[in-house]
Amino acid sequence: MRRIAAGDGLTLVAVLGGAALIAALNLATPPGSALHVPSFVLPLAGKYLCYAMLALAVDLVWGFAGILSLGHAAFFALGGYAMGMYLMREIGTRGVYGNATLPDFMVFLNWTRLPWYWHGFDMAWFACLMVVLVPGLLALVFGYLAFRSRVSGVYLSIITQALTYALLLAFFRNDMGFGGNNGMTDFKDILGLPLHADATRAGLLVLTASFLSVQLLLARALVRSRFGKVLVAVRDAESRVRFLGYRPESYKLVVWVISAVMAAIGGALYVPQVGIINPSEFSPANSIEAVIWVAVGGRGTLVGAILGAVLVNLGKTYFTGALPELWLYALGGLFVVVTLILPNGVLGLLRRRGGGNGAVPKPLPVGEQPT
How far is CA 298 from CA 159, 160, 291, in A? Predict the structure, then answer.
């Protein structure tokens, strides 16, 4: 436990300290200095940390509850759309058509009034509430129906993938009122601060690092609690847990909703930093990538999920520019190699070299006693 605690501390220092250092070197050093961090690095680093939130959310349900979700990008994208709606309302008369009420894409499509579900998104607090509430309610309804029916394993994975694909098709429609295939972009400011200013970008980066750190601490507290121990038992022997009088579906539902909200917060912070949100964020491939990040970093470790998300996306940024035609093959090959050679991921390898076995603790078979 001390080793895990130390790992958490190092991760928090790396995330918060790294974000603060990048922001400081961008704002406090002149552009010609060797220490100056270019402006484009700020949103890029912020994007990596948002992806780390998605990976952390996936690891919470997959690594500790045994729920392999291939649809967590849906919650990430819904959080992003909620933030995008607020940012579009913030544009006001500064849009191409100068309409104070309707976003540009609605004017272009000849909409005459703002849809009812857009009302309230001109207020930041309401948008933040929707970032949590909408994905949380979707996760609650979906999880209740799936877990109550005792759907599990590959069948649950397929259903989660179908969920995000259905949302992808729905948000592609122009009559849904979310920008169709083009989505939402051309954001101007957030809370009155210009989005393209370095100070705003630096603030968003530090804010993202702070939210990621809080999520890591909350997730660690959850899995170390009695609730977390039951989750691991459900993952490894659900029928035995049910025989002992517990309700595994209730535990699964709670962690599923928490995980969905975590992913949604990551999506909400992602949009103002990348400057766009469109239906491609619902793509099932994004959810599969998130699973790969967790597998590469180390399933069931939390810290490993963050490490995997950052490492894989750093590689993606480089190789999609250097070898764009080979990147997808490399990503698939990476997943195969990790599965066969490093089943506990990079973090498991590091812990094994440091004296631990790097594996996620599992309950002993019935009748065995610890030695």
Answer: 24, 22, 10
Contact call for residues 23 and 205 (beta carbons, < 8 A): yes
Q: Is 304 helix (H, G, I), strand (E, B) or coil?
A: helix
Domain boundaries, the chain: 2-353
Alpha-carbon gap, residue 77 to 186, rounded angstroms: 18
Residue 278, token pair as written in the block: 């469109």
- φ, ψ dihedrals at 168, nearest 5°: -60, -50
| C-beta of residue 348 within 8 angstroms of C-beta of residue 298 | yes
Cα 210 from Cα 207, distance rounded (Å): 5
The tokens for 19 are 């974000």
Cβ neighbours for 69, distance < 8 A, ≥ 6 positions apart: 58, 61, 62, 157, 160, 259, 287, 291
* 107-148 pLDDT tens trace: 999 999 999 999 999 999 999 999 999 999 999 999 999 999
**Cβ–Cβ contacts within 10 Å for residue 206, how many?**
19
Categorize the per-residue pLDDT at 356 as very low, low, confident or very high, splitting at 50, 70 and 90. low
* 3-class SS letters over 37-56: CCCCHHHHHHHHHHHHHHHH
Helices (H), 196-283: 198-224, 226-243, 248-274
> Residue 3 pLDDT > 60, yes or no?
no
